[in-house]
User: Fold Translation factor GUF1 homolog, mitochondrial from Auxenochlorella protothecoides.
Amino acid sequence: MQGLIRSAGAWLRADSPVVSSASLACAWPVLPAWSWRQPPHPARCTSTEAEAPEREAPQGEASPRGFLAGGHSVEDFPPSHIRNFSIIAHVDHGKSTLADRLLELTGAINPGAKQYLDKLQVEKERGITVKAQTASLVFKHEGEQYLLNLIDTPGHVDFSYEVSRSLAACQGAILLVDASQGVQAQTVANFWLAFEQDLAIIPVLNKIDHPGAEPARVTAQLAEAFDLDPAAVLAISAKTGAGLDRVLPAVVERVPPPRGDLAAPLRALLFDAYHDEYRGVVCLLAVADGAVGRGDRVTAAAAGQSYDVVEVGLLAPEPVPTPSLRAGQVGYVLAGMKDTRQARVGDTWHAARAPVPAFPGFKPAQSMVFAGIFPVSADGHERLAAAMARLALTDASVAVRRENSNALGAGFRCGFLGLLHLDVFRQRLEQEHGADVLVTAPTVPCRVVLQGGESIELSNPADFPTDVRVEAVWEPTVRATVVTPEEYVGALMQLCTAARGELLDHVVLDPGRTMLKYTLPLAELGGDFYDELKSASSGYASLDYEEGEPRRAPMQRLDILLNGEPVDALARIVHRDRAEPLGRRLCAALAGALPQQQFQVAVQAAAGGRVVARDTIRALRKNVLAKCYGGDVSRKRKLLEKQKEGKKRMRQLGSVEVPTDVFHDLMKVRSR
Ligand SMILES: Nc1nc2c(ncn2[C@@H]2O[C@H](COP(=O)(O)OP(=O)(O)OP(=O)(O)O)[C@@H](O)[C@H]2O)c(=O)[nH]1
Assistant:
């Protein structure tokens, strides 16, 4: 057994440098570790600075210094008394709940908080973390005060870009595992992310209060899968608080302090940035050496821009301005930036005219799915454009460009990190910015090689050439990791094969638990794949993936035609074998969803130069005034008004009027 598990580890490491969904988003910082990430042990860490005294925050006095819980200021914490760590885990294993408890325990927030660090409405509603959040805590251990900087990370694979860059600002990570669910796909991915970055890893079992908890079994899983010492595994319940008192002492004792040199010139990593409506762009910096303070002139090396620092401080978890941020500390900087695109995450900041060696940086987040976004009502473009501009400011990982559709008019083509990211973006457009939007079927980018050798990158099915000969199409793939109880292996292998998957490996993790590794076309992960995976495993299987090599595949454009006119917004790029069945499903769905018109409408699907499916909608003469008997003028006017409003939500596709809801209905049509 041990051999098998070790081979799993070896395979993971040999097969890919970082086994993580993060690399799907191409988010992997080109590390290895920086020098300050492998500091000496605290006991060997020399510090000439004074010990941190305990004192009260000044009352009633406007102080330029920022004070943390217990009245501490940043000067109280030399690098030896700082710990920077992330909480990483599979989705829903309890990261945000643990973060809440740690904030309460250290007095940073009042008891009873629920997902305090999840600030977005969409995060609160869906109970998921989308954006990594930072919080600085003060914790007393064995008579010494420590400044602990905690980063709560998202669990979902789409947002793993956030995890990898958060880890770059840390020296340690709490690897949280649900004691009832055990090791899952993102547990594996996140472990290797932290391991590859040389972080100290603290394994913590959560939910030991859960009736299905099996702490002994999951501890054995962790020990075998990751070669961890079972004695190092902590067991807690973030819900009841059981075992919680052991977590922060473990952080202090096991996570090495940052090795910063306060006397050296400023060298800081910009590891995150977000937009605040009132304060502009808030940059999160991990200061490796030196210090940065209000009024300093700093340069962002890769961006090649210099800025005057307006404010620096710690997030505790609310912003606490401080005179400076010092070596080893993680905090925020306001430098008068208006747009998050100015803040390139992974950039190195230094004092103006005092360049320093740059950090390796991060690869930019790469869009994995694209979709068109259009206003629901024909006159809603301006409102949508304003909403897009505002939201794009806060989410630099979405790629936006203008698009014009014959069917839907002016809109945007946007690139996302995955389907959840797309859905979250849509929800935020609607909830936070009041835009009523219509989203076209998501598509993955592919490369089309034309006769003569010219090759084009496509992110819009409507651009797929039909008038020139296509020599080859290359579609993106992922290397997917599925962790499942043994009894579902057969059903899951069937599912992956149906999704055009190629089995790469099959590893028994422990008796009753298996890890499958597949190459899958990225296009197949859209639609219902995740739901099918869950239903084939009664909800027990988990999935993670990283970017794979592009693969040649017989992909073609599937057009939907209304009375002979192709509707560009309904085109898809599909595998040759899928064109006909999908075409049939789309025609049937469209025929079912379209209201009858005053003439017969032919609904057709065409691929590879031929019609592959057809449906017909019979004619109906509709008269909105038919019910108006007796010449009631005001009633007539009301009905006409109502019809006018309804028409705003209609689009004229050739001769056919289509309610915009139809586009939403068609998105739900299964691709397989
Ligand atoms: N029984 C029990 N439930 C817990 C415990 N900790 C968290 N939960 C529950 O587990 C669910 C997920 O918790 P979260 O803290 O949102 O998980 P997360 O890992 O932050 O989720 P993502 O950010 O979406 O990955 C919530 O319903 C919590 O109330 C625990 O110790 N015991």
